[in-house]
Amino acid sequence: MIKGSNVALADLSDSVGSVIVSLGWISPTGDGDADVSVLLLDASGKVRRDSDFYFYNHPVAADGSVQLLGKTPTADGSEDRISFDLTAVPSEIGRIVIAASRYDGARFGELDDVKITLADAAGESLLQFAVDDADSVAAVIFGELYRRGEEWKFRAVGQGYETGLAGLAADFGVDIEDDAAAEAEGALDGTEGDAQTDVTGPAPIEEPARQVTLEAIPAPRGPEGEVVESKKPAARPRTAKRKVTLPKTVKKTLAENDSWKQARLFPVSAVKSDRDREMRATSVLLAVMAQVPEFSRRLTAGFGAPAGRMETFTEVSLPHGDSPRRPDGVIRVERAGKLWTALVETKTNGNALKADQVQAYMDIAARRGYEAVITLTNDVALEGSPLVDVKVDKRRKHKVALWHLSWAEVAYQAQMLIRHEGVSNAAHAWLLQELLHYLQHENSGCHGFQNMGPAWVPVRNGIDDETLCQGDAQALEVVESWERLIRQVCLRLGGELGQKVLPVQRAKRGTDPKERRNRLADQLCLDGRLQAELRIDGTPGVLVISADLRTGKLRTSIEIPDREQGYPLSWAKRLVRRLAEAPADLHVETLVDSEAGGPRGTLERLRPEPADLLPKDNGAWITGFRLSLLKSMGSGRGNAESGFIRSVDDAVHRFYTTVVVHLDAPTARRAPSKERAAAG
């Protein structure tokens, strides 16, 4: 079941006069635990008396309707079981709340696989509900049994309380005094019962709480009958929250030979056409979003979607004029009784969005009160340059936002979660891994931006024969494609590294993006070069990628500023040592303050003589070093092995993994000194 859903027990089994409810969890260290509690509520939503509250010191109802059976061993450890005789429940009881609480400051986020299951009188399992969003709470309502007429139903609740059992009990008319709270919960550290914080469910109805004092546990007596002072129980050890990430090393396969293919949740072998690719990719993505809240929240938070219960749908038919429209998907998020809804239109395999199609979805969304239309393609959206132009009827009160995602961004978010940051549930990690495998498969059509556009070849030809003029519209198209490519390179590299990688925009604050691109297009016409800068967290400088369309060469480089202390020769020797594993054809240039420039050479030549990096002019001081790698760029406009896009990806990846990783982390700089630079 999913959070908030309900089901009639009679629809699941013919034998539901009595049921067994089990609460289970797994502690990574084996030490973590929680206490089960049950509350019987009348029509007002409160307990009638103190005896309607069942916990470990009050486990059995006199009428047999409730019995806490204690822990039962399972394959993963143990689970707490509760027996309910629903035929014996008093008629004035309308709801039975089933909960558990932790103690000594522990939280449910420190436990794995937190769930509730329900079985009928014959022991046949009827339902299961996993509580996945209770990381910071000390008490959780797992679910509730409630009457509807003459039948009993079950609702999956998953409501949490940061203040533990005291806050939960106070919500239902039980005011646990401090001493009693310590007995019932293993010490709440003096937290007042009326200071509850509901972090995942709706706010409770404010009503005067009934004062109920729980019986204290009698003090143990010695052999002569004297009362022995009870020792305070030792604090139960807390367990660290465990995040599930992919293992760094691949497990050894059990396959008989290398030709065997591992079974996959999302197969791609049957995908034959573009329509099949779009339908399969949409369904795969939306299904995973509905099941992995951490992932879906990353994709939709920027679009104004709330954090709540999400449901996703595909191939929905919506009326529009004479013929209905069928968007590829619909996303619906419920939060505190309010609904946020978006239409989804996807394209794969490099297919472009159709302006009339997106316009129709915008109109439908406005009429039906939807908040957004989300497009998802291989392309990357740019600021100030929409992928499609749509008209907005300003007379309509309801405004619809148009948002765009690229498949590269979807893959990036999945990589960040399962390879670097981790998710709280092993099943979620596996689902994300299967999604990522599908997106990266060559037959999925979800490989991101992969075509420099129809203007690429004419512009290259114009540069070769020197006929390209400033103001050429095709040059602007190439600049926009180049910016999309760089943004995708940042996503791919950032997903691999687990670090933030961002393009650097050299423009005055407030400059219009179109104006900046026009200026870059004119520069392309003059010198035939495309250039971009990438800022990578943890690196000593900005990584520069330059494509010279005249020579057909790609240059990747980074400038290392001078060090705070030491002598220039020491800097040079240390740099050469750090680059011991770098390619021999790496170009190293010494940066100086003179116009003549500093020494330069390949790493292969400089390794035996690092002193060759020092300037001959004793009056010049070193300001840093520039490291560069050159490679031939692909000629094709697409993402084939010989394509330009692939060559840029490969150049950046090679430069980072063979050069940048060996460099020192950035340090604070100080103004260069002629005396310091000339020394040694």
Brief digest:
The protein has 680 residues and is of the alpha+beta class. The strands form four sheets. A seven-stranded antiparallel β-sheet has the order 17-18-19-20-23-21-22. The chain has helices at 164-171, 178-185, 274-291, 293-300, 355-368, 407-421, 426-440, 456-464, 473-497, 513-527, 568-578, 603-606, 644-658, 674-678; strands at residues 6-8, 18-26, 35-41, 53-54, 66-74, 77-85, 95-101, 112-119, 125-130, 139-148, 151-161, 309-314, 329-335, 338-346, 372-377, 401-406, 501-504, 529-536, 543-548, 553-561, 587-592, 600-602, 622-632.
**Which stretches are low in confidence, meaning pLDDT under 50 for 5 or more residues running?**
178-241, 668-680
- Write down how many β-strands occur, each being a DSSP E stretch of 2 or more residues: 23
Number of helices: 14
Strand content: 15-25%
Radius of gyration: 33 Å
> Averaging pLDDT over every residue, what do you get?
81
Find the structural class using helix and strand composition: alpha+beta
Tell me the span between the first and last alpha carbons. 73 Å
Largest sheet: 7 strands, antiparallel
- Please bin the fraction of helical residues: 25-40%
Shape by Cα distribution: elongated
Strand order of the largest sheet: 17-18-19-20-23-21-22
Key terms for this structure?
six-stranded antiparallel β-sheet; disordered C terminus; alpha+beta; elongated; single chain; seven-stranded antiparallel β-sheet; 25% helix; 24% strand; 680 residues
Write the layout of secondary structure elements.
Elements: E1 6-8, E2 18-26, E3 35-41, E4 53-54, E5 66-74, E6 77-85, E7 95-101, E8 112-119, E9 125-130, E10 139-148, E11 151-161, H1 164-171, H2 178-185, H3 274-291, H4 293-300, E12 309-314, E13 329-335, E14 338-346, H5 355-368, E15 372-377, E16 401-406, H6 407-421, H7 426-440, H8 456-464, H9 473-497, E17 501-504, H10 513-527, E18 529-536, E19 543-548, E20 553-561, H11 568-578, E21 587-592, E22 600-602, H12 603-606, E23 622-632, H13 644-658, H14 674-678
Parallel strand pairs: 14-15, 15-16
Antiparallel strand pairs: 1-11, 2-6, 2-8, 3-4, 3-7, 5-6, 7-10, 8-9, 10-11, 12-13, 13-14, 17-18, 18-19, 19-20, 20-23, 21-22, 21-23
